[in-house]
């Protein structure tokens, strides 16, 4: 007669399955974004797709289980660092450079920016916090004359979203080219000091 697994054994198996799924999801989302087929996540985790639904309730639940590790922690650290910088004008330079770096490295961040899953309250909260940071940092930089006077927080949002669309749906540029274009972008939005003819 075969032994019936105990409750503690079943719970341990469930925890192990959940961690395997989380690990597989992080790897898949990091490489391909949040829209990656769940079949690939299940295969990498060594479980069935049904197990993902049993453990996490589906794609949204799985995303919300790993998004802090994937995106939220780093994004909020960028925002906090920008806010703490003494150089008010330099905050936008740091912030936009760091955002574009995160976009390049982390396809999942672009899906958050594009609000690919608006039914996720957690993802929408990330967008809300990001929008508040955009407004705050642009307003502060405008106050010290660091940005072109017509440049707005909506412009900053549009630039970041346009970049997300390009990275998600276009050809990924070499890193050197991407960083060079970040410099061009910053040169375009920053206010240049008046030049003297003499």
CATH architectural group: Orthogonal Bundle
Please state the structural category. Answer: mainly alpha
What is the mean pLDDT? 92
Per CATH, the class reads Mainly Alpha
Characterization of the model:
It is elongated and about 70 Å long. It has helices at residues 7-32, 38-45, 49-56, 59-84, 88-105, 107-113, 121-143, 153-169, 175-189. The mean pLDDT is 92. The chain has one domain: Orthogonal Bundle (Tetracycline Repressor, domain 2), CATH 1.10.357. The longest helix has 26 residues, at 7-32. The protein has 198 residues and is mainly α.
Would you summarize the structure shown here?
The chain has 198 residues and is mainly alpha-helical. It is built from 9 helices and no strands.
Supply database-style keywords.
single chain, 198 residues, mainly alpha, Tetracycline Repressor, domain 2, 9 helices, 75% helix, elongated
Q: How is this fold's topology laid out?
A:
Layout: H1 7-32, H2 38-45, H3 49-56, H4 59-84, H5 88-105, H6 107-113, H7 121-143, H8 153-169, H9 175-189
Helix pairs in contact: 1-2, 1-3, 1-4, 4-5, 4-7, 5-6, 5-7, 5-8, 5-9, 6-8, 7-8
């Amino acid at each position: 007669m075969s032994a019936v697994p105990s409750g503690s054994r079943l719970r341990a198996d469930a925890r192990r399955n959940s961690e395997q799924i989380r690990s597989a999801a992080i790897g898949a989302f990091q490489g391909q974004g949040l829209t990656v087929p769940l079949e690939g996540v299940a295969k990498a985790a060594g479980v069935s797709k049904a197990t993902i639904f049993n453990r996490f309730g589906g794609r949204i639940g799985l995303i919300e289980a790993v998004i802090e590790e994937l995106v939220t922690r780093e994004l909020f650290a960028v925002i906090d660092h920008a806010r703490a910088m003494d150089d008010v004008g330099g905050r936008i330079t740091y912030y936009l450079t760091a955002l574009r770096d995160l976009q390049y490295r982390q396809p999942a961040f672009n899906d958050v920016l594009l609000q690919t899953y608006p039914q996720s309250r957690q993802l929408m909260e990330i967008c809300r916090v990001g929008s508040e940071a955009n407004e705050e940092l642009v307003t502060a930089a405008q106050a010290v004359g660091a940005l072109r006077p017509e440049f707005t927080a909506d412009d900053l949002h549009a630039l970041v979203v346009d970049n997300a669309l390009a990275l998600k749906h276009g050809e990924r540029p070499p890193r050197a080219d991407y960083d060079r274009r970040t410099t061009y972008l910053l040169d375009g939005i920053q206010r240049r000091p008046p030049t003297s003819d003499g």
